[in-house]
Amino acid sequence: MKKTLAALAVTAIFAAASAHAAGFKAGTYTASAPGIHGDVTVEVVFTADKIASVKVVKQSETQGIGTVAVEQLPGRIVDAQSPNVDGVTGASITTAAIKKAVSDCIRQAGADPEKLVPVVVNKAAKNEDLSTDVVIVGGGGSGMSATIRSRMNGLSVILVEKMPFIGGAASISGGQVVSQGSKLQKAFGSTDDSPQSMVEDFLKNGAGKNDLSKLHLYANNVGATIDWLHEKVGVKFIPNDLPFLAEYSHRRALEFQGGAGTMAQHLREVIAGNGAKVFYNTRVQELIVEDGAVMGVKAVDVNTGTTYTIRAKKTLLTTGGYGNNKDMLSPKMRNVLYYGPVSSTGDGLRMAQQLGVKTQLLQYGKRYPNGIEVAPGKAKSTIYANVGAFDQAGILVDVNGNRFVNEKASNRNILEPMLETPNGQAYVFMDQKSWEGFYKRLPETGVSHEDADRYLADGGKNPPLFVKADSIDEVAKLAGVNAANLKATVAKYNGFVKAGKDADFGRPTQYMKAEISAQGPYYIVEQKPRFATTMGGVCTDDKLNLIRDDGKVIPNLYGAGELVGGVMGDDSPAGANVGWALTSGRVAADSIAEAIKAGK
Fold first, then answer.
1. In the prediction, which pLDDT does 89 show?
2. Closest by alpha carbon to 140, among 589, 582, 571?
3. Which end of the chain is more exposed for a tag (fewer CB within 10 A), N or C?
4. Roughly what angle, to the nearest 10 degrees, separates helices 259-272 and 141-152?
5. 141, 169 in Cβ contact below 8 A?
6. How far is CA 375 from the centre of its chain?
7. In sequence order, what are the residues at sequence separation of 6 or more whose Cβ sits closer than 8 angstroms to the Cβ of residue 317?
8. What does residue 139 show for φ and ψ, rounded to 5 degrees?
9. Of 250, 300, 296, 305, nearest to 279 (Cα)?
10. Rg (Cα) of the chain, in Å, rounded?
11. pLDDT at position 101
């Protein structure tokens, strides 16, 4: 051991010497690099022999995700005296932007950033024993909801999160949430909805494969959850806004004010001030099991090596899905573009399976028909940008230049015929006004205007396909779409607009107010299937206790959120996944409080 530590110390000394050997031209330098929502600008101060400070002076990164890299990475670079440091997991684009900009500043200061070997800082790992009423594993929507509710219920809480931030999939969701039965739904004008109507809509959308007991639990508790979030937690919703969604027979989806990111940031701030202990960058390695009952977890801080033995009266798994773990996906899902969080690797599901938990619908994932391929196998969403286009005169066509669907149909009812097209994808065709509607709403799902401008400038040479031209013939050629058919499709659609009726696919007349312009420019953007949310998972009773294959409860072990499978069937409607996360987190927290109070 002494030899190993000595070797590490020598490594650190040589690394430090190497880092300083080049020397710098003392001064302050600035540089920028593209982040996820625009340029990230850094200011780096050098003395003659070291990097004195790194500051991010301009950025518009995702709150609570990219901004974590903004907060943490400059200090790491100064400590290491090199930009060649570990990035912030889950914030790869922001991390890359900061590193690139700092490297540019180092070059301005006369040194080669690639030759600055990071200084090694050794930290002694520790072992800690902790106890709490409830340990919550995973800080996504359900974990945050359960943490806040458990503290309001008077319980001590330890929240363990393997990422450097909390928020999970809920923080990057579309920003809509099911609100059936809530006071706001009624106040905003939808007064005749009911749990039974919601159940019927979900069964229809989920091909009848839904876990009925969980679906009824959801329908009977989501309204109270929305009321609690609004009135007690302080989550804000856009006033008088219940958008049309084809999956629903009633207007029942609210929109978070400022989007899902703002909602998640508010929950982070509530948790930061409510007395819960939160361990970041900490991975749960195993459940503590004694005589068949779960008694807590063992976890390790991946940065410091500190290990935690956390004993708890109740353990709640809120670890999300397994969409980013191809080994756990069905063959059909492995080839679909993924756009979800990197953290969705099925950790909680695997731990529960070791205890013999019953599972269902593991072969299904929620696929959307509106993805663009931004990296091999990775997608971003254009779902709300499409809305902006379809509010004007945008249409969906296949590679043969033909319309094949009502553009305002549900995601499922667009996806299924899209998969039957010759190349299994679609294209949004737009005139200038439709493009302006599309472009305006792109940032709502993480595609910046800078991204779109760059994609267009590429002219279709690399994915994602964004092309522009002055004529239909030219834009179709760039996109590889049949031009003659596309021109005929445009003429036919314009005839439907004049007649006030889409005789082919029944697009609602309120979304057929404008003809496609006879004058260019025209635009085409690819549409590929994408997915993030897995539909399958563990089975529970109605208290959200996990159950085994034999139907018996696993004592002291609960689940919530995406981990709990079957609620949606084989497909989820808009706003349903984040609604289930927030609702099941609250219900699980109340079940836990009830059991602890009863001494069970």
1. 83
2. 582
3. N
4. 40
5. yes
6. 16
7. 137, 138, 348, 351, 352, 538, 546, 557, 558, 559, 560, 563
8. -110, 40
9. 300
10. 26
11. 96
Identify the pLDDT of residue 93: 85
**CB neighbourhood size of 384 (10 A):** 21
Quote the CA–CA distance of 576 and 569 in Å, as a whole number. 12
- Cβ atoms of residues 26 and 53 within 8 Å: no
Burial 19-39, CB ≥16 within 10 A → b, else e: bbeeebeeeebebbbbbbbbb
pLDDT for the residue 3? 33
Instruction: Decide if 511 contacts 531 (C-beta within 8 A).
Output: no
Other Cβ atoms within 10 Å of 14 Cβ, number: 13
What SS3 state is found at 380?
Answer: strand
Segments of the chain scoring below 50 in pLDDT: 1-21
Which residues, 6 or more positions from 449, have their beta carbon under 8 angstroms from its beta carbon? Answer: 38, 439, 442, 443
CA distance 597 to 589: 12
Choose among 519, 482, 483, 477: nearest CA to 393: 519
d(CA 73, CA 55): 10
| Nearest Cα to Cα of residue 434 among 514, 500, 527 | 514
- Is 571 in a helix, a strand, or coil? coil
pLDDT given for residue 122 in this prediction: 67
User: What's 256's DSSP letter?
Assistant: B
**Structure tokens belonging to residue 377:** 């196998």
Q: Which two tokens stand for residue 556?
A: 């002291």
Half-sphere exposure of 383 (CA within 13 A, CB side): 27
Asked whether 180 and 219 are in contact (CB, 8 A), the reply is yes
- The pLDDT assigned to 238 comes to 97
Helix (H, G, I), strand (E, B) or coil at 238: coil
First to last CA, the chain: 47
Q: Do residues 426 and 527 make contact, with C-beta atoms less than 8 angstroms apart?
A: yes
Distance between alpha carbon 260 and the CA centroid of its chain, in Å?
Answer: 9
Distance of CA 531 to CAs 143, 245, 287, 369, Å?
22, 19, 30, 9
Query: Strand pairing partners for 254?
Result: 177
Which residues 6+ apart lie within 8 Å of 152 measured at CB?
A: 232, 274
DSSP state for residue 529 in the 8-state scheme: E
Buried b (16+ CB within 10 A) or exposed e, 475-495: bbebbebbbebbeebbeebbe
Helix axes of 66-80 and 92-108: crossing angle, nearest 10 degrees: 40
Looking from the CA of 212 toward its CB, the CA atoms found within 13 Å total: 3
Is the N-terminal amide bond of 83 cis, ω within 30° of 0?
no
pLDDT at residue 7, as a whole number:
33
Helices and strands, number each (H, E), in the chain: 17, 22
Helix, strand or coil for residue 596? Answer: helix
